[in-house]
Fold:
Amino acid sequence: MRFGTLCLLALISGWFAACSAGHERDRYVSEIPPSPWLNHHDSVVYVGKEACRDCHFQNYTSYLRTGMGRSFGRARPEKSDAVLHPDSIIYDSFTNLSYHPFWADTVMMVREFRLDGRDTVYQRTERVDYVIGSGHHTNSHIFLVNGYAFQIPFTWYTQQQLFDLPPGFENGHNQRFSRYLGLECISCHNGLPALVAGSQNKYDHMPLGIDCERCHGPGSLHVKHTRAGILVDTSKTADLTIVNPRRLSKKLQNDLCARCHLQGTMVLREGRSFYDFRPGMALTDIMDVFMPSYDGGPPTLIMASHIERMMESACYLRSDGDLSCIQCHNPHISVAETPAETFNAVCVGCHKDSAEEDHRSEITRSKPLENCVTCHMIKRDSRDIPHVKITDHRISLPDADLSRPLRFKGLVAVNNRQTDAFTRAKGYLREYETYYANPVYLDSARYYLRPHTGETSRAHFKAFVQYFFLTDNHGAIRHLVRSNGLGEVLSRFLTVQDYDNEDAWAAYRIGQAFESDLNLVNAALFYRKATSLAPYHAEMMNKLGSLLVKTDSIAEARRIFSLVVNEHPRNDRAWVNLGYCEGKLNKPVQAFKSFEMALRLNPDNVQALINLAGLYVGRREFDLANELALRAAILEPDNPQLKELMKVFNR
Structure:
């Protein structure tokens, strides 16, 4: 039987999905007000925390013991808080896969495997390159392939001293080794990495831990002046070559912390990236951060909700925002090393009346280990991170529980209550696509987009493409492109390679809209545009290659898929597609190897199982073909290609 009759083209459509990351400014960048801080200038660069050590040795050494100082490091025994034993096994009942982290001398490894009775029927081992997390709550794990960063599917939960799947991998959502770690993620859990333009998760450089410059700004000018003997008496005036957060207004102090301690749906200003915020800037100059709002407050907490919760405190509201994080926290000193009296003193500074003093004295006498925080900033469960309790920064009277039936009001930009309608629309679209596909979000996006119908800026064009794509209105996308002119869209609207790959994503979505209408010529134009802007994005490259297969450009498709597997050797879908092309080009040996590689990476890749079974049928090795077909039938019993294959066995 000929190869092509069983390797059907159904693998081409609906098989691919991905996320974002890229480079470069465009002419629509919004203006940021002039800054007094000299290190806000583009010519001032980051130099690394070691440049601070000689002059600020005490702060440097104490900071390395803080949670931020320990946020990221190489996967070595001295960095890891995990307690590994031979029986440290995590079992995922949804995938029937198990994970065993272990040390090979001083190298952390993880083995993914599947058992059939006592027999190991599948296994894959990966080296762990980095530990992410201070260990106060968790240690999660990262591995790199050709510089591409992915999450390892196990996490150590320190408070309960147990291994489990990482947050978001539970309850049938195990992404195994494919969850990419983009700039939005890494830039808060670590120092600023060097993301490769046109990728979503490839890095030229990965620093080791959140460093001094994340709070003080880039230090090259400050170091240059210091080494030249140009010194400033900071007891009299500010040294404007480096930001001292103590000299900022409390609003800007909180914006500095909110950059990472206000987790939510982040909507960047047009032309901005996660690299652009510098200490001393207003966060609203770079982004708005949206969170769901409920009558009475949120029903549960998320891990990085510190700023949001503090802003809901009576202390914050009654003082008109005259409360900042660094009134309580010294970022150079670990919370574990900070005496409780330090925090109590901040509370007593405002609550000085005699009744409150008597209350405090009574607590101190009866329970010496108690303090204001214990009662008024209760530790609670986090809804986004299992197995941990976090300190609720909403200062309030003690209560037992947050859980109560509440009405969802909408998304609110926590850092900017004056958000414009268009930014709100983008917030709802991003929330829907990234976190929770609630149809209400699309209704709200439509409401806020409606006043902008007919506007033709790049930003509005991309937002409407995203909205129509998420509502499966491909016809509206095609109409939008044609009404603006196909050439105009390609040459003016989709030209920027940025760190979110926004233009590339818009091109990708337009390509799908034309492909769904069987207009493969226009689809190819937009897929090629997408891959020119994001050449290191595996799924966009896969999609272009798949379209080339549809147009019977098999040799060119094979070249595309070869590029993908060379750059992304763990991408099992690219191996399947490459194997298909090799089969069509009458290279069955190479096709066998490609399908087998896909199954070594993912034993549940149905397309690889079906295609490899088809090859075995062609060689009349029916037992092997039947074994693969049965595995595919367990996973996708209604797969149409599988049904065609099964007819062969029934002849």
